[in-house]
Amino acid sequence: MKILLYFEGQNVIGRSGIGRALSHQKRALASAGIEYTLDPNATDYDILHINTYGLKSYHLARKAKKMGKKVIYHAHSTEEDFRNSFVGSNQLAPLVKKWLVGLYGMADHLITPTPYSKKLLRNYGLRQPIAAISNGIDLKRYYPDEYKEAAFRKHFHLSETQKVVICVGLFFERKGIIDFVEIAKKMPEYTFIWFGAVPMLSIPANIRRIVKKDHPANVLFPGYINGDLIEGAYSGADLFFFPSYEETEGIVVLEALASQQQVLLRNIPVYQGWMQDQQNCYMGNNNQEFKELIRQLVNHRLPNLTLAGFKTAQAKSITEIGQELKTVYQAVLQLPYDHQIYSKVTK
C-alpha cells in the first residue's frame, strides 16, 4: 500500500493548521509503516490522500480517478470556518461551499477532524463514508521544557512574576481576535500575546487596524514564530486563551494540551465529545465570563486540569492517528466497503 499525500499552496497556507496537518500525516504514516510519496507526478501509488482545494488539487483528483486510483479527500475546511476570515469571505462563502462539495464529492472516502465537522459535511448532502480523525499532535515536541520557557520569557522581556495569556491563530475575526484585544484592554495588569500572521492586505481593514495600532500596550503581536520560542510560550505562559467562534478542530488547542497548559475556550459545538468544561479545560460564553475565568486561572484559584488535558492530547498522538488512517486506507482498498472494518473511526 502506497499513499500519495498532496498539499497545494504550501508557501501560502503552510503555516496554518492545515499545513501542520500535512506534517502530522507524514509522521503518522511513517509510524504505521505506510509508504507514501509527495510527488504529484507519481503513478505507482494506490490512494491519493488530498488536503487542499485549489485547481491543482481538483485536476490531480480527476487524474487519479481516470487512472482508477482511490481518492480520499481530507475535509479540513467548511463554509462555516471560511466565514469571517479573509476580505470578502462572507460574500464568497456560498460559492466556496459549492466548490468544496464538488471536490469532496469526487472522493471515495472523506476524512475530517471531528464529529462536528463530519456533521456539517453530512448536512451538505455528502454521502460517502466519513471518518472523524483528529489531525493529531506530536507529544514530544510540546512537552514542557525549562530551557524553552526561559527563552520565551527572555525574548519578550517578561519577569518571572509577570502573568501572561497567549493565543495562537491567524488574524481572523472568527478566531476571536477582537474579543482578545477588548478583554486585554480591561486587564492591563496582564500581558496578552497573539502568535500568528497572515498577509495584511488579505484581512478586513478593522482587523488590520487592531493588529497594527488599535490595541493597548499590554497586547503583543509578534507574528508567526516557531521552534523553541512558541513551544516555550505554550508551556511557559500562565494561560492559553482561544476565543475562536468556529473551528473544524483547532490544532493549537491540541498543542496547548500537549504542553500541559491551562486552556480556556469558547463554548462552541466543535469541542463536543472531546473537550469538556471543568473536566479537561475551562469554557466561557462571552467576554465577561472570559475576564472572570482568566483572572481566576492565572492566579490559580480554580482546580488545575492540565493533567486531564494532557491525557486528551495523548489519545490524539501521531501514533494513534497513524493507526486510524491505516484503518481507513485498508477499507478504501477493499471497496465495496465493509462498514465493520472502519466503524471505529467513522462513528
UniProtKB/TrEMBL annotation:
Residues 152-300 form the Glycosyl transferase family domain. InterPro entries: Glyco_trans_1, Glyco_trans_4-like_N, Glycosyltransferase_grp1. The keyword Transferase applies. Residues 43-141 form the Glycosyltransferase subfamily 4-like N-terminal domain. One of its GO terms (molecular function) is glycosyltransferase activity. It comes from the Bacteria. Keywords: Transferase. The keyword Ribonucleoprotein does not apply. This is Glycosyl transferase. It comes from Enterococcus devriesei.
